[in-house]
Amino acid sequence: MTNPSSVGIVSAQKAVFDQPIALSSGVTLPRYELMYETYGTLNENRTNAILICHALSGHHHVAGRYEETDKNPGWWDNMVGPGKPIDTNRFFVIGLNNLGGCHGSTGPSSIDPETGTPYGSRFPLVLVRDWVETQARLADMLGIHQFAAIIGGSLGGMQALRWTITYPQRVRHALVIASAPRLTAQNIAFNDVARQAILTDPDFHGGDFYAHNTVPRRGLRLARMLGHITYLSDDGMGEKFGRLLRSGEYRYSYDVEFEIESYLRYQGDKFSDIFDANTYLLMTKALDYFDPARHYGGDLATALKEALAKFLVVSFTSDWRFAPERSREIVKALLDARKHVSYAEIESAHGHDAFLMEDAPYFNIMRAYLNRIAAEVNA
C-alpha cells in the first residue's frame, strides 16, 4: 500500500557540467557531474523551490525509496514529503550530492578523464563556497533563479549561510539548523584525529588505494566511531546503552563487552562499507575551513550585511558538537547586521543528531515557518 505521506518511489538524476570550475584551492576542474533528486512540482512562476544541503556523510537521496523493498528511505524522509514540514505538495524540493562526494557526483573515486583512473590523491580540496557555486549552476540548469528556502543541518547549515552571502538575491529564506559560524579548536581537533586514523592506515596508500584494490577500512571505521560519539549526547548514550554488558558479566578481555562498544563498531563497519575515505577527508577539511567572516576582519555581522534572506536558526540543548551558543553567535551577527531572524533552541537528548530526529517541538517549528514560506510563494 502506498504511504500518502511519502514521496514514494524516486530516481536519481545526473547533471553534467562541461564548463570548468575554478575552485578556492586554486585548482580548476575542466568538467564535473552532480547527482540529484527532486520531489514535488515546480510551480508556474518557479518560486517554490527548496534546496536541501547535506551534512558530512549525506547525499542526494533525501526522501522516498528507490524500490518498494528498500529497507531504509532517504536520510530526511521524516521531514520531506506530502503533508510533512517540508511539504512536497507545496514545494519543489531538490537534494544533491556535493562535488567531492562518493554517491555519484564527481569526487576522488571518480574516473579522471585525463588518466582513465580514479582521481584519488589528485582530487582537489573543496570549500563550502565551491559547493555553493556548483549548486547555483545546478539551479541555473533547472531554471530556478531564486530559492524559496535553502535548508541544511550541520555542514548543510553552513552551506545555507554561505548562500545568503554569495548569492543574496537568490535566497528568500535560509534555515540554519544545528550549525555554527565556524569550527572551534576542539572540533578541528576531532576532525584531525579522525583524518589521522585514515591517513595512517597502511591500506590508504597516500589516497590512491583504488589502484591497490583495497580500502583503508580500519582507518575509516575508527574515524566514523570517533565522529559518531560526537554526534550523540552523554544522556542519550546513557539512556540507550548505560553500562549494559552483552553477556551480563565481565569477560576480562579487550573484545566487545559493553553494548555501546558493540553499537559503535557496528556503525563503523557499516560506514566503511559505503563511504569513500578520500571523501571523508575532503568533507572534514571543508568543515575546518568554513569561516565566512575570515575575509571581513573576523566580523560575521559585516559578512552578513549584504544578505537579503530571512533566517530561521535552530539549535538543540544536548548538542555539544555544535552547541546552542554557536547558533546564538549566528543570531547575534544577524541582529547586528539588522537582518530578520527567528531562533529556536529545542530541548532534546539526541545530541547533534537531533536535527535528523522526529521531535514534535522541532517539527512544529519547522512546519510553522515553512507554512509561512508556502503562503508567500504560492500567493
TrEMBL record:
Taxonomic lineage from the root: Bacteria, Pseudomonadati, Pseudomonadota, Betaproteobacteria, Neisseriales
PANTHER family tied to this protein: HOMOSERINE O-ACETYLTRANSFERASE
Gene: metX
Keywords: Acyltransferase, Amino-acid biosynthesis, Cytoplasm, Methionine biosynthesis, Transferase
Role description: Transfers a succinyl group from succinyl-CoA to L-homoserine, forming succinyl-L-homoserine.
EC code: 2.3.1.46
Compartment(s) where it occurs, according to its Swiss-Prot or TrEMBL record: Cytoplasm
HAMAP family hit by this protein: MetX_acyltransf
Site (Important for acyl-CoA specificity): 321
Organism superkingdom: Bacteria
Sites where the protein binds substrate: 224, 353
Active site location: 154, 319, 352
Protein name: Homoserine O-succinyltransferase
Reactions the enzyme catalyzes: L-homoserine + succinyl-CoA = O-succinyl-L-homoserine + CoA
Family according to the record: Belongs to the AB hydrolase superfamily. MetX family.
Enzyme class: transferase
Any matching Pfam family: Abhydrolase_1
Species assigned in the record: Silvimonas amylolytica
AB hydrolase-1 domain span: 48-354
Biochemical pathway: Amino-acid biosynthesis; L-methionine biosynthesis via de novo pathway; O-succinyl-L-homoserine from L-homoserine: step 1/1
